[in-house]
Structure formats: structure tokens, C-alpha cells
Prior knowledge:
single chain, 349 residues, alpha+beta, Rossmann fold, CATH 2.40.50.100, six-stranded mixed sheet, five-stranded antiparallel sheet, binds adenosine-5'-triphosphate, binds magnesium ion
Amino acid sequence: MAQVRIEHVYKRFGKVTAVGDFDVTVKDGEFVSILGPSGCGKTTTLRMVAGFERATEGEIYISDNCVSSSKTGTFVPPEKRGIGMVFQSYAVWPHMNVTENVAYPLKIQKVPKEERLKRVQEALEMVHLGEYAARFPNQLSGGQQQRVALARALVAQPSLLLLDEPLSNLDAKLRESMRFEILALQKKLGITVIYVTHDQAEAMAMSDRVVVMDMGVVQQVGRPHDIYTHPINKMVADFIGLVNFLPGKATGGIVTIAGVEGSFANPTPAVQGEAIIAVRPENIDINKESGLVQGTMNHLFYMGDSVDYRVQVGEHLLRVIKKGADVDAIRPGDKVYLTFDKLMVFNKD
Ligand SMILES: Nc1ncnc2c1ncn2[C@@H]1O[C@H](COP(=O)(O)OP(=O)(O)OP(=O)(O)O)[C@@H](O)[C@H]1O
Ligand SMILES: [Mg+2]
């Protein structure tokens, strides 16, 4: 059982602040993702929890034990933190075969050979590599090596699992099945997981809560649904899902969009003056009969399960996605009407 408290943690590399004031508590048994664009500080944060990187400031507690403190100088090395970890570069040892790689953590724990082999086989089955036990890493694909690293992190059944983009090298189908396996295992063993990814769909699908980071700073922490429906700022709205941004103005309870007739209710009255109006493509209705906003269909992409339209409205090109739409119903050049639902309003800066 492991709760992780990361309290006001900073990491500076010279003048670069890779992580600034990271302050999040991951509950026992919780699955928390750290999500954000490349270079935002995800790996650095995870490595500080693991003990491969020393925080410049702040405290880290695992199950109420202080493992890192800039105040007292406490620093518990990685092997004493009781964690399993898959690194972004999924380092597997080239001179050991798959079984030896996965068995390594158990060997360190002095687990007897017979039990060791049994648990290694179980871990390999879990990542669909049961047949590959005798192979060496240079005889495996990137995705297979990544799964060896995952099996090695799981085999010791740690109470805290830290995963840094563990599925990035897998094809879409295998990635989905591995997501499911990791979640099922996490629930079964009741382990706490901190999962780093820049794939928002993965974070949404797997997590109890998501931590969205940008430029070293936590932007928002919340359940996937809350973050999707109530992003705190433009960055989060943009990074999670698809969104149209339009310049506009908020006055009292009303917002207007530059170059678009009519006005809309302001869902965030705290924002006043120059504003960014945001609407997700799936929250725009499109038809040829009637609606508040007029436009011209510019072009469309047939996606199989949906149609992805680009609609010219004044100077703006809006994206509209309709599930199950008839691809022949609205064609390029057609006059159309749009109706916006679930508008989001942000401060201009
Ligand atoms: N050892 C280091 N020395 C100097 N700068 C570093 C070091 N490690 C990381 N950084 C910098 O810290 C910032 C955060 O890096 P980090 O690896 O945590 O990003 P990330 O969110 O994991 O990105 P990615 O999605 O590309 O893996 C980057 O600007 C990176 O260049
Ligand atoms: Mg990284």
C-alpha cells in the first residue's frame, strides 16, 4: 500500500527550472497520470519520485516515509523505495535473456529459484511474451523489449509502480490491450500507479485523476471528465481533446465572437473584457436549415464513424465533427448553419 505525497517540489538544472512547485498527493491504490507536451517535466518528476534525480527543493513521502527532503537533506536511494519502474527508454540488459531480465528484481530479493521462474513466467504471460523467455533483447522488436521492461517492473509486485510512457512503441491494438491489462492488474493487486504519457486518450482512459503539466508547472489536477468538460485554461483545453478557439469579448453575462453575429451566454462570468471563446468540434451542430451562426462548408474528411468538416464563418475556419453523419448530406460550397453548445470562455492571456 503506498500513498505518495509530493510537496512543493522543484527541480532546477542550472538556470532551467524543469519542474516548478509540483504539489500533488497520489492516494493509496490510485492511478494518476502526468500528462503534458514534450519537455514539460514529466520524466523529471517521475525520476524524483523514484530517486534517480534529487529534488532541488521540496519533500517527497512514500507511505508516510520521507524519501527526499531539501530541508533535512534526507535522500533514500531508488532500491530502498520499494517501487517498480519502467523508464521511457525501457532499458533492458542486452547481455541477459528475457527470463534473466525479468527475474532480476526477484534475485535481488533472494526469492528461491523455483518460485522465481514461476513468477517470471506469469509476468511474461501478462505482457503476452510467454513464448519469448529464452530470447535476447537484440532478437526482440522495440515493442517487445518495452514489454520485457514492463514485466520486470511488475514481477516483484511493488506497491508503487512508476511508468514512463510504457506503451509508446506498441501498435494501436496491442497498446489498447496492454492498457487494459495494466489496469486490471492494478485493480487486482491494489497498487498505486503514477503513469507518464503525452497521449491524452491514454491518460483519459486509464486514470482516476490526471495531472496536466506545461513548461514545468502543473496546470490542472482532476478526474478525466472534469478536465475535459471544465479545462482551467486555454492550454488544458487545447491539449485535452480538440477545440476551436475564437477571439471575442465578454460583457456581463454575455459573450460575442469577433465577426460573428449574435451573442451567447457566458458560462464563466468571472472572465470579462477581451476573451477567448472555445468550442469543441463535437459540440457544434451543423445543418442546412437554421441556426444562430451562418457559414459555408469549405471541405470535409470522411472518417468512417464520423464526418470531420471545416466550415468558414467570417474569417474563421471552424472544425465540426459529426458522428454517423451522412457524408453526402452537406457538400463543399453549401451554405450551413451552426449551433454552438458547451461554450468555454477564457481570459485572453
Ligand atoms: N539532466 C538534465 N540536464 C539539463 N536539463 C535537463 C536534464 N534532464 C531534463 N532536462 C530538461 O528539463 C526539461 C524537462 O525534461 P523532461 O525529460 O522531464 O520532459 P518530459 O516531459 O518527460 O518530455 P518528453 O515527453 O519529451 O519525454 C526539459 O527542458 C529538459 O531539456
Ligand atoms: Mg519524458
